[in-house]
Amino acid sequence: MARDQQAGRAPDTAGDADGGDGADDAARADGKGGADGGARADGGARAPDDTARAHTAQGIAEAWERERPGTPVSSIRILTPIWQLAKLFGDDRRRVLARAGVDAATLDLLSVLRRSGPPYTLSTRELGQRSLVTAGAVSQRVARAEQEGLVTRSPARGRSRTVLVALTRAGHDLVEATVDQVLHRDAELIAGLTPDQQAQLTDLLEGLLSDVQRRLGEDWIGHVGQP
């Protein structure tokens, strides 16, 4: 999955079962045509619109339906756009954070502390649970943020093995400035949906996520691209 994201394309579920579109691309490049028909069956050249459509979720699904009738392809029409959106949103988020001068891991740490409310202090265990990352990753994030003066670490009173992490004034100021940039940008990206459509999509995604977690037996969810 991570490889597909880094390569800038979404795994088309069934499409990647045989190595993805790479074989088709190579076939088209040498003029032999691919599984989805680099050239028309009647010998004519594929129209530009047809070529573009062949790489959409709908086009991929239609190609599999044509080549392998009876193959279930409904997931392609749902999962491919989800992966494509994850790629687009992830790339844009990295650009926003780069302009803000903060990395995603640090902002995640600071945001979890900020959302916890006063006194903006959590144990490292709580940070791991709320950030959905391992204890080792939390330790690295906290150490880096502490070096930058964004958080402090201290032992919990009466619990020597428990480490508390607290947001500093500098950390608070940074997350306040950055979260506005991030959330305003996110709002711009989904502005093509009406409020009613956004509410409907929210319900659908929540339902799908809950059901997939149940089917996979996965209560814990990491971030995209993480093992």
Protein described:
The termini are close together. The protein has helices at residues 2-7, 22-29, 48-54, 57-67, 74-100, 104-115, 124-131, 135-147, 169-189, 195-216, and strands spanning 121-123, 151-156, 159-167. It is elongated and about 65 Å long. Mean pLDDT is 81; it is low at 1-42. It is 59% helix and 8% strand. The protein is mainly α and 227 residues long. The protein has a three-stranded antiparallel sheet. A hairpin with a 2-residue loop joins strand 2 (151-156) and strand 3. The chain contains ten helices and three strands.
SSE layout and pairings?
Blueprint lengths: L1 H6 L14 H8 L18 H7 L2 H11 L6 H27 L3 H12 L5 E3 H8 L3 H13 L3 E6 L2 E9 L1 H21 L5 H22 L11
Antiparallel strand pairs: 1-3, 2-3
Number of strands: 3
* Main sheet strand line-up: 1-3-2
Cα shape: elongated
Largest sheet: 3 strands, antiparallel
Amount of helix: 55-70%
> Total number of helical segments?
10
Which stretches of 5+ consecutive residues score pLDDT under 50? 1-42
Q: Compute the separation of the termini in Å.
A: 9 Å
Query: What is the average of the pLDDT values?
Result: 81
Element-by-element helix/strand order:
HHHHHHEHHEEHH
* Rg, alpha carbons: 23 Å
Alpha-beta content class = mainly alpha
Strand content: 5-15%
Structure in a nutshell:
The chain has 227 residues and is mainly α.
Which characteristics define this entry?
227 residues; mainly alpha; three-stranded antiparallel beta sheet; 59% helix; elongated; disordered N terminus
